[in-house]
Write a structure and sequence with these properties.
By secondary structure, the protein is mainly beta. The protein contains no helices and 13 strands.
Length: 186
C-alpha cells in the first residue's frame, strides 16, 4: 500500500507525572511517577537514595525517613539510559482545610430494620461528602432516634485534591430504639 516502508522509530522515553505528596493511609510522604517504558528507577531525595528492584511503568515509593517541615528536592532517574526529572516539596502532613459545613445534618436509615437488628449489633457504613465541606473527622457525631449521642468511630477513607474529606467510614452499634440515625457534621 505504501511506496516505501516507513522508518521504525524508537519509542520516546520520558518520565511523566512526578508528584510527591502526603499519603494519609501510610502516614508518610509518597513519590509517584510514570515512565513510557518498563524500567527500574533511582530516586534521590537530598541525601537519601532509593533504588527500585523491579522494572515497571507505574512507580510508587514511600519516603518514611523524611523530616517533617524540611524542604526536599527529589530527582528520579532511570537505571538505564534516559532523562531524569525533579520536584521540590516540604515534607509533612498538609494542614486539613477547615471545611465549609457549619452545622449540617443528614439522615441514615438502617435498611435491615424490618429484620429487628438487636441493640448493640455492629453497624458500618461509608458516607460521601462534597468537595470542601468536611475538613476533618473531629466534628462528626451520630445521634440515635431519641436524639442521644451514640458511640462512633470515624475513619477518613479518601480525600479531595484540596485535602477535604471525600468519604468517611462510620462504625457504631445499633441503637436500642428503632428508627433512623442522624449524622451531624461541621
Amino acid at each position: 500500500l505504501l511506496a516505501e516502508r516507513p522508518a521504525v522509530l524508537a519509542p520516546q522515553r520520558e518520565i511523566q507525572h512526578l508528584e510527591v505528596g502526603y499519603d494519609w493511609a501510610a502516614g508518610c510522604m509518597r513519590a509517584t511517577w510514570r515512565t513510557t517504558w518498563p524500567v527500574a528507577c533511582e530516586l534521590r531525595c537530598n541525601e537519601t537514595v532509593i533504588e527500585e528492584e523491579t522494572a515497571r511503568e507505574n512507580h510508587r515509593l514511600f519516603l518514611r525517613q523524611l523530616t517533617t517541615g524540611e524542604r526536599y528536592t527529589c530527582t528520579v532517574r532511570p537505571n538505564s539510559d534516559g532523562p531524569g526529572k525533579g520536584v521540590s516539596f516540604v515534607a509533612g502532613k498538609p494542614q486539613a482545610p477547615r471545611g465549609t459545613a457549619v452545622h449540617e445534618k443528614t439522615t441514615l436509615t438502617i435498611l435491615a430494620e424490618e429484620r429487628n437488628v438487636p441493640a448493640g449489633y455492629p453497624l458500618t457504613t461509608g458516607v460521601p461528602f462534597p468537595k470542601g465541606v468536611l475538613g476533618s473527622t473531629e466534628n462528626v457525631r451520630l445521634l440515635a432516634p431519641d436524639g442521644s449521642e451514640m458511640p462512633l468511630q470515624v475513619k477518613p477513607l479518601t480525600r479531595w485534591p484540596d485535602h477535604s474529606l471525600k468519604t468517611v467510614l462510620l462504625n457504631t452499634m445499633a441503637p436500642a430504639i428503632p428508627g433512623a440515625l442522624t449524622l451531624e457534621y461541621g
